[in-house]
Amino acid sequence: MEDKKTYYLTTAIAYTSGKPHIGNTYEAVLADSIVRFKRQQGYDVRFQTGTDEHGQKIEIKSEEAGVTPKQFVDDVSGKIKSIWDLMNTSYDKFIRTTDDYHEKQVQKIFKKLYEQGDIYKGYYEGMYCTPCESFFTSSQLVDGKCPDCGRECQPAKEEAYFLKLSKYTDRLIEHINTHPEFIQPESRKNEMMNNFLLPGLQDLCVSRTSFKWGIPVDFDEGHVVYVWIDALSNYITGLGFDVDGNNALESGTDLFEKFWPADLHLIGKDILRFHTIYWPIMLMALNLPLPKQVFGHPWLLQGEGKMSKSKGNVIYADDLVEVFGVDAVRYFVLHEMPFENDGIITWELMVERMNSELANTLGNLVNRTISMTNKYLDGIAEDKGIAEPVDEELKSLVLSVPQKVIDKMSYLHVSDAITEVFTIFKRCNKYIDETEPWVLGKQEDKKDRLSTVLYNLIESITIGASLLEAFMPETTEKILAQLNTEKRALDNMTSFGGYVSGTKVTDKPEILFMRLDVKEILAKADEISTAQAEAAECNKEENIIDIDEKPQITFEDFEKLQFQVGEIIACEEVKKSKKLLCSQVKIGSTTKQIVSGIKQYYSAEEMVGKKVMVLVNLKPAKLAGVLSEGMLLCAEDADGNLALVAPEKDMPAGAEIC
RNA sequence: GGCGGGAUAGCUCAGUUGGCUAGAGCACACGGUUCAUACCCGUGGUGUCAAGGGUUCAAAUCCCUUUCCCGCUACCA
């Protein structure tokens, strides 16, 4: 049996709380372009993607929708899968965290880690600073006290399971230092090191009791496995991994044995921490090898302001595909995303790219080449060998591109790789200008030269189109079909002239990419936007916010709190702080200084004169070096927007709130 | 507040270990061409390389200071 090198790539699994927008879709397309290229390079590839389907948010959403959580995620997961299919992503495995084999293994993993002591049942036995609401490992404490506020830390009481991280920290640091390619882009490595690894990790809470929709901890009723052990494990359970070593086989093959460790976890930069710290530690605890590389890709952002469904400006892949076609959308997201910085997508930019690169440079090139071949040569371009110096320039450029593309792709610089391919098409257009086939066509004695010129063009386009396959598979197929030839293999691009001389091209060239009118497209985008906003309106997600429930308190507990109306008589910004305002608050005959993190929502000037609700008897603390003697109460919505709470009628400063 | 990364043409960015008149794409303007989807080709830059100082024969590049942006993180009683 041929011993091909394997390549295992995974994307993050998409959370099934709603339809994925173009930014989520980008990840799947990026992954797809990478694996398609690896296949071209001859690797035995496995590409896994899927959906993450547990958690409180889904429990709540399904309840609102009046269906069971399973029904809810079945629906959303199906939608996500259909968008991945629409985008032509060639995944080998679509895993769902509600799949039974996955759930079973997660339970076994959890149990194994528990039995060997890597997971322990805690009662927040770590050092907990109540005022700071934070946990600290003992190594983080300063003189046994909270490193932030310097106060005593105590154990807290809530019951939960924790993954012990400290045991493996040194090994992980060592691994990251000796494997510079492990975290990509490399700049993220410092962030992980400096913010988490070097200061010391606090143990990760891996179970919850506050909701039910999750994988139960089978030896402790009431606990469900919280997100990370559940979600991250998909990368191995999807290969049929079994904790006891009885890996499930797929058509006789032990996929886990064959494909693990993964070559690349492709994820968004926001979850890099989980993939480069918690996941490796889980794997170490399971005594499994670590993935070779984790790439936290940047985001594809939407241009016009913050996206929101109610504004109707969320861009979805299926809307784009309807207007532009699959490959145009693939081209756009891949090309517009640099390696490290966020990219931007708008309808205008889409049209611009579509017109200038796809329609003009590529589409028109194919079209004019085929048209001339038909017009002057009855569709048959033979290599008559009538060469001129300019031909060599074309050939050497074309033949230099494959290696450049391979290099760019090996560093995952997909955008640059596509740009390289397009240099072929640009050179071809120039070549046409240089050789002027329409002039040759008028001279009977130049027929052979003309034929050679068109042959060179067709050969160049064949190579270019073949190189495009990873990025725009349908376009590759369409071009090659029009040229009536086969896809050229990557290792077969070292010499010029593979196109079978004398082949007849199609006599009915089809437009590959239609030029679009920006105004028309924007009008269409407007329609989509309006429809979206209307849908959001009638489907109005009731603005209900659920937060974690706290334990019941007694009236005595409540009586300990002293609330009064306070009048803000002066207010200024706290220098050196992004969020803090420092207010002088009149409460009865005294004045307290209170610092609040509301600068984003209130200016210092507008604060003055407000009468607000104040928690008066809170122990004073220093914030950013400024003393704060109480708390201004605020309401907070799901996006973190704040609104001060004030008495409904005018009340004097100092009035008790009870 | 801590750590890190930036600031180069109207826009998006390249610029390797300091080294010739600082580059590319887009956009714009003009010229050429007509096979093609009004397309393609060519030509066109007075840029304080954020500001100031320093090292050097030589600085966009190295060092210091300042300003402004961004990322992660902490804080946000």
Any key phrases for this structure?
single chain, 658 residues, alpha/beta, Isoleucyl-tRNA Synthetase, Domain 1, OB fold (Dihydrolipoamide Acetyltransferase, E2P), seven-stranded parallel sheet, six-stranded antiparallel sheet, 21 helices, 26 strands, RNA-binding
CATH homology group of the domain at 345-551: Isoleucyl-tRNA Synthetase, Domain 1
- Radius of gyration, in Å, reads 31 Å
Structural class: alpha/beta
**What share of the residues does DSSP label as strand, in percent?**
15-25%
Shape: globular
Round the mean pLDDT to the nearest integer and report it: 86
Biggest sheet statistics: 7 strands, parallel
Please identify the top-level CATH class of the domain at 345-551. Mainly Alpha
- Alpha carbon gap, first and last residue: 80 Å
- The count of helical stretches stands at 21
Report the CATH architecture of the domain at 345-551.
Orthogonal Bundle
The CATH topology of the domain at 345-551 is given as Isoleucyl-tRNA Synthetase, Domain 1
Entry summary:
The chain is of the alpha/beta class and 658 residues long. Helix content is 42%, strand content 16%. It is built from 21 helices and 26 strands.
Give a verbal description of the structure:
The protein has 21 helices and 26 strands. By secondary structure, it is an alpha/beta fold. The mean pLDDT is 86. It is 42% helix and 16% strand. Strands 1, 2, 3, 4, 9, 13 and 14 form a seven-stranded parallel sheet that branches. Strands 17, 18, 19, 20, 23 and 26 form a six-stranded antiparallel sheet that branches. A three-stranded antiparallel sheet has the order 5-8-10. α2 (56-65) crosses α3, α14 packs parallel to α17 and α15 runs antiparallel to α17 (447-467). It starts with 5 loop residues before the first strand and ends with a strand. Among the domains are: 345-551, Orthogonal Bundle (Isoleucyl-tRNA Synthetase, Domain 1), CATH 1.10.730.10; 555-657, Nucleic acid-binding proteins (OB fold (Dihydrolipoamide Acetyltransferase, E2P)), CATH 2.40.50.
